[in-house]
Design goal:
The complex is a heterodimer of chains A (305) and B (372). Chain A has 15 helices and 2 strands. With 305 residues, chain A is mainly α. Chain A folds into 2 domains: 45 residues, no CATH class; 227 residues, MetI-like fold (Orthogonal Bundle). The chains are: A mainly alpha (305), B alpha/beta (372). The interface between A and B is large, with 35 and 39 residues.
């Protein structure tokens, strides 16, 4: 269809071409603010970071615009970075799975068994933590999981532990728990929006037609809420790749993630070195989004949640 | 909502926006006219990048009330970051705080700061005489910064759990203290501490061989580190709650832990030597409001404020007159314990913080050990 119009336009008089162009420009005009934001706040900084990543820093901490692959070489030849990136992805994937499972159960229950009014109140309760600062929420977990924290006191009080344990915080476990806590609301909101539109009588119909509960769930429900599941994955997994504060505060010296190593470069003004690591993370995220895009249409997110 | 409703609400929205915009513009113009009509006031605002312990709110409020000088403060995280920031924004800052060798070797060498005659500031007569003559800050063009505070980095230990009493960096590597150490989150400094532990003197300019030795020590240190403190108070809190038995930090942590209701702790300067800092207020060469800095320093560096700063933040400062006030206020013993009167000899034994040739390698090394 498009080819025909373009082909037709090629033969049309110049005034008609001009008219179509201006019509097309008018159509594109509403997208201009979004384009400015995307180009100005995303594409340009990313391009700058990309350029910087091929430069180096001298002893005076000046950025020297001499092209080099050394920063990337350092990343790939030093197994720590690759291992830490891998560890970050594993923790991110694990947290995403936990968030999806917990959020799904909550959203399923609310959308199927609770009236819309009460479901909204429940959702409000889920998002209440967002009203307090992120920092405060992570700090409060220090107080819960710490050696003298609430969890240890309860476990010692119940006689389950003889003495307070250091295992709950300042390690990967602590990071995992707190990240799951922080991101469950995102997943819950997205999944609820998906499930709210699902007609649950379809599950009954499937079972009437001989499908077991698992098959009905897998072949009827899951395909219809797939966009919600993928969106929830994006909302949880991708931000975790850049998580810096939570691992700093509850991961301790043993629970650092890739963003913590990246931050060490910027703290010492080693900008090109940090830019290379940052760009690699950004490239990975972009690749991931491209993969997700295969399974996700924009209208799925916008219309179906 | 149908299409008509949409259009109407959009129109209403635009009308409301236009009304709000007009009101704001009118308000701005009126305010500007009023400002023009008023006589010029003394004072003004200037931009100061500094650490949170370089001022106290009551001091700033008092100066604002008396002199109408208001600093717009941005938090300084570290020397390298501050240096990089100033290079980027230059004249957008007027006053900058910086440490020891960062002042001459980075800020002055890059032409970012303006030397001045410290004796032009009357308040400088309150400083210890040696503080007005630090060789590293003396240039033919003038003095590079107004001396403020200082401290060597010490190790503090919980006397009940850490026995026998340590005297060396080696205590941080002892497997007995697995998960019991908290160190401030400054990778380059942690590498420097391990440099000291291995006997290196110039820890900011280490050779590859020295760094290889340091790597071994960092690997021993890693399992012992519970967490990296984001700020000094995190270390103190960890010691107070006895989560940590060993921390590194500035002079004065014994009292901070005690004041917080924590256990008895003691501090020591490791026998292998340590790193130290002494900071100064620098005048940014291209600062647009630097005319306010001398009047501000005349007030803000007065002994009364410096004594108050000592009581609040608890680490030694270079103001001798403030020491006398502290003695009068019954804080002399505390000041003596924090070596307030012994800056010259204490700092002479430390490696002063400064930019180095091994910065990048130190960070790579730190990441290599503390990454996964």
């Amino acid at each position: 269809m498009t080819t025909e119009i373009v082909g037709g336009a090629a033969l049309a008089p110049p005034t008609a071409i001009g008219g179509r162009r201006s019509a097309r420009l008018r159509q594109l005009a509403p997208f201009l603010p979004a384009m400015v934001i995307i180009v100005g706040l995303f594409v340009v900084p990313l391009a700058l970071m990309f350029v910087f990543s091929f430069w180096s820093t001298n002893e005076n901490l000046d950025v020297v615009p001499v092209w080099t692959l050394e920063n990337y070489q350092n990343f790939f030849t030093n197994p720590t970075y690759v291992r830490t990136l891998f560890k970050t992805m594993v923790i991110g994937a694990g947290v995403t799975v936990v968030c999806l499972v917990v959020a799904f159960v909550v959203a399923y229950f609310l959308s199927r068994y609770v009236s819309r009014r009460w479901a909204r109140i429940a959702l409000l309760i889920i998002i209440v933590p967002f009203w307090t600062s992120y920092l405060l929420r992570v700090y409060s977990w220090q107080a819960i999981l710490g050696e003298h924290g609430a969890l240890n006191q309860v476990l010692v009080g119940l006689g389950i532990l003889r003495e307070p344990s250091l295992l709950f915080v300042y390690n990967d476990f602590g990071t995992f728990i707190v990240l799951a806590y922080l991101y469950i609301p995102f997943a819950a909101l997205v999944l609820y929006a998906s499930l709210e539109r699902f007609d649950f009588t379809q599950l009954t119909a499937a079972q009437d037609l001989g499908a077991g509960p698992v098959a009905a769930f897998r072949r009827v429900l899951l395909p219809q809420i797939r966009p919600g599941l993928i969106t929830a994955c994006i909302f949880v997994f991708i931000p975790i790749l850049g998580e810096f504060l939570t691992p700093s505060m509850v991961g301790g010296a043993q629970g650092l993630l890739i963003a913590n190593l990246l931050a060490n470069f910027f703290k010492t003004a080693l900008i090109p070195e940090g830019a290379a690591v940052g760009f690699l993370i950004a490239a990975f995220v972009t690749a991931l989004l491209i993969v997700f895009r295969r399974y996700l249409r924009v209208q799925d997110v916008v219309v179906r949640g | 909502m149908n299409r008509l409703d949409n259009q109407l609400s959009r129109r209403r929205f635009l009308q409301a926006s236009a009304a709000v915009g007009a009101a704001v513009s009118l308000g701005g113009i009126t305010a500007a006219c009023n400002a023009i009509g008023q006589p010029a006031v003394q004072g003004g605002t200037f931009n100061w990048m500094t650490w949170g312990d370089h001022y106290i709110d009551t001091q700033l409020k008092a100066i604002e009330a008396s002199d109408k000088i208001v600093p717009q403060i941005s938090e300084l995280a570290g020397n390298a970051e501050g240096f990089a920031k100033l290079k980027e924004v230059k004249g957008e800052l007027d006053q900058m705080s910086g440490d020891a060798l960062w002042v001459p070797d980075a800020y002055f060498a890059e032409g970012l700061i303006e030397p001045f005659d410290i004796n032009e500031l009357k308040v400088s007569s309150q400083l210890y005489p040696f503080a007005r003559q630090f060789e590293i800050w003396t240039k033919p063009e003038g003095y590079l910064g107004y001396p403020f505070g200082w401290s060597p980095i010490s190790i503090y230990y919980n006397v009940e759990h850490v026995t026998p009493a340590p005297d060396s960096w080696a205590v941080l590597l002892d497997p007995k203290y697995k998960g019991r150490i908290v160190i401030e989150n400054q990778p380059e400094e942690i590498v420097a501490y391990m440099g000291k532990a291995s006997g290196v003197d110039d820890v900011y300019n280490m050779t590859d061989d020295q760094l290889a030795t340091v790597k071994g020590l960092l690997e021993q240190l890693k399992p012992n580190v519970l967490k990296f403190a984001q700020q000094a108070t995190d270390s103190v809190n960890a010691m107070t709650s006895e989560e940590a038995w060993l921390i590194t930090g500035n002079l004065g942590n014994e009292d901070r832990v005690k004041d917080g209701g924590g256990p008895e702790i003691k501090g020591f300067i490791p026998k292998e030597g340590t790193v130290g800092w002494m900071d100064a207020e620098m005048i940014v060469k291209e600062g647009k409001n630097k005319s306010l800095l001398f009047p501000f320093m005349e007030k803000s560096q007065q002994a009364e404020y410096i004594a108050e700063n000592f009581i609040t933040h608890g680490r030694p400062l270079f103001n001798e007159a403030a020491y006398k006030i502290l003695v009068d206020k019954g804080e002399g013993d505390r000041a003596d314990r924090y070596l307030y009167n012994k800056a010259e000899e204490t700092l002479a034994k430390t490696t002063l913080k400064g930019p180095g040739t091994s910065t990048e390698k130190s960070i790579q090394l730190f990441n290599e050990v503390f990454g996964a």
